[in-house]
Amino acid sequence: MNYPIWDIANIGGYNLIALISILHVFVAHFAVGGGLFIWLLDLKAQREKSSELNSYLRHHTKFFLLLTMVFGGLSGVGIWFIIGLVHPQATSTLIHNFVYGWAIEWVFFIGEIISLLVYYYKFELLSPKERKLTSFLYFLFAILSLIVVNGILSFMLTPGKWLETRNFWDGILNPSFLPSTLFRSFFAFIVAGVFGYFTTITLKDSIIRRKILIFSSKFILFSIPFLVLSGLWYYDILSDQAKYTTFVLNQQSHIFVKTIFVTTAIITILSILMVLRFNGLIKAVIAIILVPISLLWISGFEFLRETARKPYIIYGYMYSNSILKNQEGEIQGKGILKVSKWVDGKNVQRSLWNSQCSDCHTIKGINRPIAGLLEGTPKLGIEAYLTGQGEIYKYMPRFLGTKTELIQLRDFIDNQIHPQEVEKETEASLDSAPAIQVPSTSTSAQYVLFSWATLGMHCMTDADKFFSILPPANTIHAILIKRGDPPEIVTDGVEVSYEIEAGFEDPSNRLEFWNYVKSLYGLDLKRNFGLAGDTLKGVMKQKDEIFVVDHIPVSPYSSDDKYLPYPLVSIKAIKKQTHELLAQTKVVAPVSTEVGCKNCHGGGWNFKNKVGLSDATATKILKLHDKRHKTNLLKGASKGNPIACASCHGDLATEMKGIEGVLPLSVSIHGFHASYVPFKDSKACMLCHPSSPTGATRCLRDLHVQRDLTCTDCHGSMQKHALSLLKSEANKPKSQVLIEAILKGNQMNVKARKAWIEEPHCLQCHKNFGSPEVSDEIEAHMLYREQRDDVGIPCMACHGPTHALYPATNPYDSKRDNFQPIQYTGRPIIIGSQGSCYVCHTKEPDGPGHHPNMRKKTESGQ
Amino acid sequence: MDLPLPLPEAVPGHPYLFLFLNLLTFLLHIIAMNILLGVTAVLLLDRKISKTALELGMGKTLSIAFAFTVNMGVAPLLFLQVLYGHLFYTSSILMAWYWISLIAILIVAYYSTYAFASSLKKIYLFITFICVLWTAFMFINNMTMMIQPSVFKEYFNNSFGTILNLKEPTLIPRYLHMVTGAIAVSYLFLALLSRLKGYSIDYVSICLKRFFFVSLFQILWGTILVLTLSSDVMVHLLLQIRHMIFLLLGIVCSILAMIYAYKTKIWHCVVFSALTLVFMIITRHNVRSLYLNPYFDLLQLQVSPQTFNLILFLVIFLVGLITVLYLLRLSFKKV
């Protein structure tokens, strides 16, 4: 923002800092620990009056001088250079606040140089006392140098009270200063021992070599327990937020933690071996390999420390992209481009990339390249990532800027990653559905049969090779009414059967569900049988005055290779004893595989470019889940053992218990995605659900659509919807993380509700069953689909199923969803409305009957 | 001027305090660097002097001079960033690849001095010489770019860190003025060292004559440097008393140093050479201020004092200085 960005293309400034810093720190720690090593060894040499030890000391000090003075000194300057180039803003803040610290450290640096030069060049000429003093002074200056520099470095991770006071000493004496100084000191002693081994390789005197090996091992083995203890203290001092973000949310930290543990163990074991008596050649090899192993140790630690500080460069003060935390509000209002000094007017998009992303990412190349991270992710997915960035996974900062800038950055990233591809969203072509004849039922008929699918649309995953969110499982209900005055519900002596439309009898012809149902749901099912044991033709069970068949495996794919998401099911009621046909009708069993994960995750559709979760998308989803949550889902699926999502995320829809403490599926999936989805209206819903008006399903087809109402008018925005579900699981820590991420610091008054069993209700707007008054409140009520009227008739019998309330507009055939109204009244109307009480009543009834206000005229006069 | 100038941050003390520290430590750096560069050049190119120079211990001295050049370079760079960081970081970024590669080049050069100390092979001298010459050239590119913010907009043509300030007319004169100065100072250093070690007056005299001769070139490049300054800056430098006085004093002292060198009055030469350096470093700063005048003045900086820390630094510096002097005394006693 304030400074130009050095375009380092595929390398990334972060990696240059890492390379120079890690090498410097490794040698610098040797400079400190080696100072103690030399001092103590000098005392030992003088105590033992050993000329051999003196000779070794000279030899070791020469190596020490050449490594620490030259490489150590200049690489330290190198850190200054590189941080000024890659992160000038943070460097400037550190310099301007802590210049006296660095000035003091410079004094110590002079002391180090002079004492080491005097010790080395005048070794033979100094008296024993002078040698002791000179070597001690070197060590003293070195460790003081470490203390000062570490004060500044540890400040970056835990600034402590400095955030309020801006006081130099609050910054230096910050919470992690002492534990990290101890931690580094003990590592310094360890690496001194490692190099102690190293410089014995060329020693010919085996007695002296053994003495030095034991001396060096003592350095290492004495330090390791204190290293571990100070390391635990260091970890403990981190804020809860930093711990959670680093070690739970950020998977990158795990390899660094493993590196530290493994290399510590190796160093310990090899140091013990070095004191045992065996072959000198093996010991020489160990001495050599311990150097890169120690370098690996410090690499793991420094990378972990850097990771723990994310998303900040100075924790709680300045983000990695140089934006100050207290500038967020200003930038969200004005945009980042207005407050940046280095905007290239000819290439604004690249300036956005530079200001927001380039500190931590290259496009291609080696620094967390986004070309790899976002491979195959379409524009919308990129936009979603930018929208939700830093809300849940707080190791990244938020995108800061206007919506226009976000779109510009999205387009830049998309062009960089997919220069050739041009996404074109076209309206899905609809396959032609067979024509249907709706018979007319005479008003003199004795019985009338109503039927409905309990869900206005049942979505099924059809990616069973990989996972299952929802299986093929439509539930159909029916009620048989004997016409009369009054009419009565009939169940005794009646059998109600069902049969799927021709062409849909064999879903296993295309669906792979039965190949994996054992793995997914733990059931042995015959082909074409559903989870409750019923198939696509059979007899319904009687339950509470209605007839039901649960979870029949309806598929939207016909045998002639068409996608038809609204197959009809014939329902027939017969007298059990005589098999006399009492009544028959048809009902839509709506089912869709238009599961839109690919809209953000990429991978395309798998059927006629309009529906079906493809293998590529499913693989991507599992990879992401494995990466984020340390699962092995993709591996399990590749071995033929996919699992249902609800096996961990317990879900009332599939009646699976899940794992204790894991959020239920609907809560989890909505709660997680709500902070990413870049829409607040029903466009959000269409991304995943088959409600797009240009899609192949168009599931929202009821009368509300004709009145320009969409999903969010009943369910609330995706954000509100997710919040209401999360609030019902507020006792789980993950809920709080997701709630905070959605709210983004705002307030939103939302009431808790449970998925699948508590939904917004018609009466929210249709107060007392009257004309609607639009309400913003999304309250939980008894489900419409389970509700009955004052005389015990399920609401759906007359009004139709959710999302297909009469009069419905089916995209394939207007008659499909209005079959029963047309059959019984000749018109696509609410059954019983517009004077059609005769459908069930042989005499015109007095009073409202089923519910209040049912005989009140609506605005249209109906 | 519509330039993308970064905003400077507040400083923890009066700007002139940091300016004083910057100039003082820069002086020490220049002395060490002059010995490093100059002695390397002498050993490489001046056969007559180099043999005796080696006897004086110059083989080992180069690596020690390197250590001091680096250490004494750290401090002025630190204080430069306090005062001019917002400009310095920007100019560094424009030449980023050149700038960062200096570290590798200096490591090679530094190790070469040790290799030379143990082998006395000229190839190592040559490597050191080339590397240090290159480093100096890069520093001058950076320092001249830093004081000319109008160059910053070149970033929009090249953001890859490969911009140099080659079009700047003062670049080469400044560079050659510095390089010749380094060689001159190193001859003076050799003369002083040989005097202290009791070498013949002839050798001392030859070194001082070399000093005189090289200084002539330095004056030539210095004159060209002044003439290649931008006209605004040149006018202010030569006509404004508070700027002109230091340049004049510097020139006078350098002429006096040359005269005393010619007369083999070494201590007078040393004193006036030191004064020349002091006044020229101040003049260099004045040129810097004049170039920056349209864009930035040190007194614009906001001050957020840290008085206790300043005192602490001075106390530690004093203690450190005493310790270092003790160690040096110890070292020089052990000959």
Structural summary, described in words:
The complex is a heterodimer of chains A (862) and B (335). In chain A, helix 1 (13-47) packs antiparallel against helix 2 (51-86). Chain A is of the alpha+beta class. Chain A contains 29 helices and 17 strands. Chain B has eleven helices and no strands. The mean pLDDT of chain B is 93. At the A-B interface, helix 2, helix 3 and helix 4 of A face helix 3, helix 4 and helix 11 of B.
Short synopsis of the structure:
The complex is a heterodimer of chains A (about 850) and B (about 325). By secondary structure, chain A is of the alpha+beta class.
Please state roughly what percent of the residues of chain A sit in beta strands, choosing from under 5%, 5-15%, 15-25%, 25-35%, 35-45% or over 45%. Answer: 5-15%
- The overall average pLDDT of chain A, rounded, is 92
| Helical/strand content category of chain B | mainly alpha
Low-confidence stretches of chain B: none
Major beta sheet summary of chain B: none
H and E order of chain B: HHHHHHHHHHH
Q: Largest interface, with Cβ-Cβ < 8 Å?
A: A-B, 61 and 65 residues
Rg over CA atoms of chain A: 36 Å
What is the end-to-end distance of chain A? 63 Å
Q: Helical region count of chain B?
A: 11
Unreliable residue runs of chain A = 858-862
As a percent range, the share of strand residues of chain B is under 5%
Looking at how many chains there are and whether they match, the oligomeric state comes to heterodimer
Sum up the overall morphology of chain B in one term: globular
